[in-house]
Amino acid sequence: MRIGKNSHRYDTTSLELEDLRFGKVFQKIDHIVFLILGISALLEDDVESAKNFLYNIPTQDWCDETCFVLGNCHYLSGQFAKGLGLWQKAISKNSNHLRAKINVARHQLSVMLREGGSLNEEVAQHIKESLSHYDPKSISIDELALMGVLYADLGEKEMAIEAFKAALKAIKKPQGAFYYYMKLGLLKEGTSAAEEYVNAALAAEKPEFQELCIRLIVDCDFPNDEKRKNLAKIRENSRINGRMGKLNIESLLAKSKSKTSNFNDFLVFEISGRLRKNGYKHVLKNGEMLNYDDWVVAENNPVKAVLIKCNNEGMTSPVKRLFLNSNSVKKVEETLYEYADPIKSSGTDEEMLLLHMRKLEHFKISKQEKVRAVCKEIGLNLNLTFDEVGKLILDRRMFTPYSQQITGKFILLEIQKDFKSGVFETIRELKILIPDNHEVEKRIRAFSEFIDFSDNKYYLKLAGYLSDFYATADQTDIKLWSVSRYLKLME
């Protein structure tokens, strides 16, 4: 959304003597001021103010950048067709307006995704050709980043990697490199990915960004010896905050074994359902205490709860997971689980939490077959795409046009297969929950306070927690979502 090196044209507009006589030069200065004010408002997420500033410029005097920024405003307001039209107008005024071309290409990809279309080679080639005639020296760092994101969406990993590497070379301050190293890590695997996360951790200034990098390194699929080397680099770096500098690498890589003998009581941190001590009428609430030897009963429905272990001095240790089936009576000690251990009855495969992207593990369909997702309640009818081994993919972006109707509630999704030419039959029903992002962030932030940020089962524990309070969650989906949320803060 920023003004690029070669984007606006007010400064190169020729002025005649007549322009000076009738004050047109002052009008052009006003137009530049309104454009700058509009961009400033948009960078503050004040879309309406941005539009008001930009519409002060007469239509006949719009330059390419005015069209581009107005297109961003309308697109962010949900007026996709109008936004697209303005980006195309920017390109007609300046055929080298790279960011407008990137936005048009990303719009085309998102439409294909929402409609369940697959990215064919012809479309991909057309997009790549439209972006290929640029001098790297004339492209800003932001534009290189946008190209990297677009190439990644196209499945062109090598081209995406080259774009992010070029952006890194152009960055003058090391602290600004975090975003690009993270993107590179997501495009690579194993040791190569971990090396990028190490670089990201060393470039990051915020502790929460550094902690995210540690989680991703520990979660990478490669030998522990390699993990030790990478984690040691972070521990030894003087820029890392004190908490990082004291990393106990062996404890990160070892399985945590919690001893309960020194802990007698539990604080109820969060509870779902009606739980009471046997023989008492009082229903337990958040903030109350339980003992190992207490007998508890679940009324009517299963009860799920987050319990914080407390010792006699009031000190706390990692959380425990309570699960109790309805109308059963047990000692607290018998209801406890680790959050890394799945509990089948805490969720079902038919109830699914969708944060970012999930693969339907129980489906393996040949790419020649046609499969679609149908939700009669909201009028959704989308063809589904496959991964490289034929697993069906549910991408949250597919549901973007329906977000106001479905956020925060379950929708019934019918997975249908074309058994005859054009005749679809339902082969499975799923209940999908797409939660409010801010609510999920708040929950995860609070729960994460009780988990070591470098726990090698961090995402697995989060999956158990979210499964209890929403629907069956997937740790890969959570990881992709959490990384994307951090990266959005940098965009």
Write the layout of secondary structure elements.
Blueprint: H1 17-21, H2 24-43, H3 47-54, H4 64-76, H5 80-93, H6 98-114, H7 121-130, H8 141-153, H9 157-170, H10 178-187, H11 190-203, H12 207-219, H13 224-236, H14 242-245, H15 249-253, E1 263-277, E2 289-291, E3 295-311, E4 316-324, E5 329-331, E6 336-337, E7 351-353, E8 357-360, E9 371-375, E10 380-383, E11 385-386, E12 392-395, H16 403-406, E13 410-420, E14 423-433, H17 437-448, H18 458-469, H19 475-490
Parallel strand pairs: 7-14
Antiparallel strand pairs: 1-2, 1-3, 3-4, 3-5, 4-6, 8-12, 9-10, 9-13, 11-12, 13-14
Helix pairs in contact: 2-3, 2-4, 3-4, 4-5, 5-6, 6-8, 8-9, 9-10, 10-11, 11-12, 11-13, 18-19
General description of the model:
The chain is built from 19 helices and 14 strands. The protein is α+β, with helices and mostly antiparallel strands and 491 residues long. Among the domains are: 171-253; 263-337, no CATH class; 356-433; 437-490. Strands 1, 2, 3, 4, 5 and 6 form a six-stranded antiparallel sheet that branches. Strands 7-14-13-9-10 form a five-stranded mixed sheet, with no helix packed on it. Strands 8-12-11 form a three-stranded antiparallel sheet. Helix 3 (47-54) runs antiparallel to helix 4, helix 5 (80-93) runs antiparallel to helix 6 (98-114) and helix 11 packs antiparallel against helix 12 (207-219). The chain is globular. Mean pLDDT is 78; it is low at 1-26 and 255-263.
Brief overview:
The chain is α+β, with helices and mostly antiparallel strands and 491 residues long.
Proportion in helices: 40-55%
The average pLDDT score comes to 78
What's the shape?
globular
How many beta-strand runs?
14
- How is the biggest beta sheet arranged? 6 strands, antiparallel
